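Worked example 3 (structure in, sequence out).
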């Protein structure tokens, strides 16, 4: 691994502060009393105490009197001098991001010295390097959130000039919310270290010997969260951010009401499916009979959860949920397909109507074409034969496109599809 990777990983840190250059430097307003560093006789004093001629083109408050290595103190000085709040944030984020970026580069230099290019990959050093970067990133996020009282995503959105995204109103006070995110980050680090050292096993996503340690760590995290929050706050946490709530939102059809969602989360908590192993899913296929299944215990919990959910909501409601979810996913896929088709049409110089006509034409011939070329690929035994079949398929598609809107537009369309 070289410094290019760190540049990629940490470019977002520089982007956080990049727009600071868009804001002109703020001039501090005239104060009713003489600013620090100035005398009433019109003679300015430097920090060394030597008198200097008072020049009107100098800022009212020298930067040396505002600057501080402590970000909180610097923020207080800037605000007291009348600096706009957005500019204060730009300055602080840019300074801390540059410092973090320099630290990341030093980590990369340490890594390069520990693992020269001519040696093989050292898994232990790779894990140490990734852990140091993760800690640095999490530390920067925690520091900025503590300074500004905002979530890191909101800070990044404003500084990058992105459209404001509507976010649900937090159910926790700002201080508790930041403490909760810091706690998550600390346990995420432990989880990364555990997953990096885990042994790969067939038909599974975690080492069975480490599964008990993972579950114990998750339970410790939940216990810490329970101690951090008041009973009322923890009750809201259960239905907003708990493992069970996240599992229900990720894996199950959407609930119709808040009350139904909370009933689903309660059942997920009872069965323990929220603590799913990495990569586990309700749609995952079990391994063949006789093959060790490291997910067996979780699969059993999930089957019991499904049964309890049917008893809680009723078979008709479960069937309706599944039907609505299928329709929603299909609608999203169709919308994505229309957007992609429109983008291809624009790039190829076609109208949306022309592209739609071509799509419907090919769709009608699709099964026959697919079967013909698939059979030919199965019979091919060399890369040269497969390449020839690909060329024949491309020529066939170009001929079909030419039938719809002419040879010139057909070539343009095929070029665009090839580039994509």
């Amino acid at each position: 691994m070289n410094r290019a990777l760190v540049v990629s990983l940490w470019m977002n840190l520089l982007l956080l502060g990049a727009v600071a250059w868009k804001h002109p430097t703020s001039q501090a307003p005239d104060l009713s009393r003489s600013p620090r560093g100035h005398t009433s006789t019109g003679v300015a004093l430097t920090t060394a105490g030597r008198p200097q001629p008072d020049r009107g083109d100098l800022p009212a408050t020298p930067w040396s009197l505002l600057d501080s290595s402590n970000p909180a103190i610097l923020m207080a000085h800037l605000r007291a001098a009348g600096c706009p709040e957005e500019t204060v944030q730009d300055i602080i984020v840019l300074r801390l991001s540059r410092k973090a970026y320099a630290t990341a580069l030093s980590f990369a230099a340490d890594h390069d010295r520990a693992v020269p290019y001519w040696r093989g990959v050292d898994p232990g050093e790779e894990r140490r390097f990734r852990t140091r970067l993760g800690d640095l990133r999490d530390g920067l996020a925690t520091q900025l959130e503590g300074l500004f009282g905002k979530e890191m995503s909101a800070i990044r959105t404003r500084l990058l000039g992105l459209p404001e995204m509507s976010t649900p109103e937090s159910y926790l006070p700002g201080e508790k919310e930041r403490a909760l995110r810091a706690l998550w980050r600390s346990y995420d680090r432990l989880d990364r270290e555990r997953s990096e050292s885990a042994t790969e096993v067939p038909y599974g996503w975690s080492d069975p010997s480490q599964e008990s340690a993972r579950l114990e760590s998750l339970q410790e995290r939940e216990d810490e969260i329970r101690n951090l929050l008041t009973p009322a706050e923890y009750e809201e946490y259960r239905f907003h951010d708990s493992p069970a709530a996240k599992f229900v939102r990720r894996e199950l059809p959407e609930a119709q009401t808040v009350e139904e969602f909370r009933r689903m989360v309660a059942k997920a908590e009872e069965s323990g499916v929220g603590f799913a192993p990495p990569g586990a899913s309700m749609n995952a296929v079990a391994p063949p009979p006789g093959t060790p299944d490291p997910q067996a215990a979780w699969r059993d919990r999930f089957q019991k959860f499904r049964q309890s959910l049917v008893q809680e909501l009723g078979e008709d409601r479960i069937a309706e949920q599944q039907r609505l979810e299928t329709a929603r996913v299909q609608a999203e896929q169709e919308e994505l397909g229309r957007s992609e088709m429109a983008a291809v049409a624009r790039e190829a110089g076609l109208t949306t109507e022309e592209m739609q006509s071509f799509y419907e034409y090919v769709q009608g011939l699709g099964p026959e074409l697919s079967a013909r070329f698939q059979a030919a690929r199965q019979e091919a035994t060399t890369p040269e034969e497969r390449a020839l079949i690909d060329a024949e398929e491309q020529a066939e598609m170009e001929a079909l496109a030419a039938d719809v809107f002419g040879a010139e537009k057909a070539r343009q369309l095929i070029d665009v599809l090839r580039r994509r």
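Notes: The mean pLDDT is 75. The chain has 16 helices and two strands.
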